[in-house]
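User: Structure with beta-D-glucopyranose, tokens only please.
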Amino acid sequence: MKKALSLLTVSAMAVSMLAGCGSSNTAATTAATTAAATEAAKTETAAPAAAATEAATTAAAEAGSTDLADKKVGVCIYQFSDNFMTLFRTELQSYLESLGFKPENISIVDGANDQATQTNQIQNFITSGVDVLIINPVNSSSAATITDMVTAANIPLVYINREPDEQEEKRWADENMNVTYVGCDARQSGTMQGEIVADLENKGDINGDGKVSYIMIEGDPENVDAQYRTEFSVKALKDAGIEVEELDDQVGNWDQAQAQSLVANSLAQHGKDIEVVFCNNDAMALGALQAIEAAGETVGTDVYLLGVDALQEACENVKTGKQTGTVFNDHISQSHSAADAAVKYLKGETNDHYIGCDYVKVTTANVDDILASLG
Ligand code: BGC
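Assistant:
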């Protein structure tokens, strides 16, 4: 299990650099910032490892009083082959065990990117009598149906990673449902990608023609993370007074191989006119890098490359200059918050209907700290 606390110093620093998130979650962001700063102050005075151990022990002690050993948790992941969700579910499993759930009572299933398959899995969990469900929906637009199925069976529900829409979240509050969402505000990650480019000495304008010409490689467009990252990365450039030109916008479905072929096509068409490659996640940035290198171009000289997630490999690339930057999508904090929310429901307590988390900008300036935190 990873130590979430050791990351809080980094989060507090990064949050203070965040500008123009412009979200309805501003209050949540501010609260999170304060909490992160407080926790960071705590970790600075105590040895970080000791503080993390103490926090884990406290969480386990609190959870223990509900006798979690007998509780069954069902976890639905939209697709096991997704790099980021693999980190998320691995951390979730080990954190649940550290809280006192028995491994045989934690069941994690692969939706194989098919909503019908996942809906069946949810039905099976309900029939088998799980005590709580943690769901990463295949389609966020199916959330209302999923919520109805699960709440009709009186099972509390924690959504992760793919945020249902505002109307659905409002219903949980209006109808006092034991349903919550744990995740980060994707607008923040898009903004940070744009800011990394705007902070470069040439502000991304490699050829000096007065504008930044970019291509966008999007994740699954049904997912709000893809929509917001696409919109807010470019908005951050414009907000910094930079003129932009979109040369291409393609859907790579969060997938490395798809991104590689899309970027290869785009490079064949636009060549050195492309100054920035924005990818909605790091898996696709890894694919983009393969295409860039195959075309004989060099990141940092011929083109800039941005991703999101802070996958280990992408961070190594940031370190060696093969990727300009990324944004840490904190799977440790998100998986722990999801498990903690599930435990609160099991204890008969309530949760807020939105549990947020902050992204962290990653460049050469702090990549070593991030890599150390990832362990
Ligand atoms: C991550 C992607 C991942 C997607 C899955 C996003 O938040 O950045 O890497 O593929 O979630 O829903």
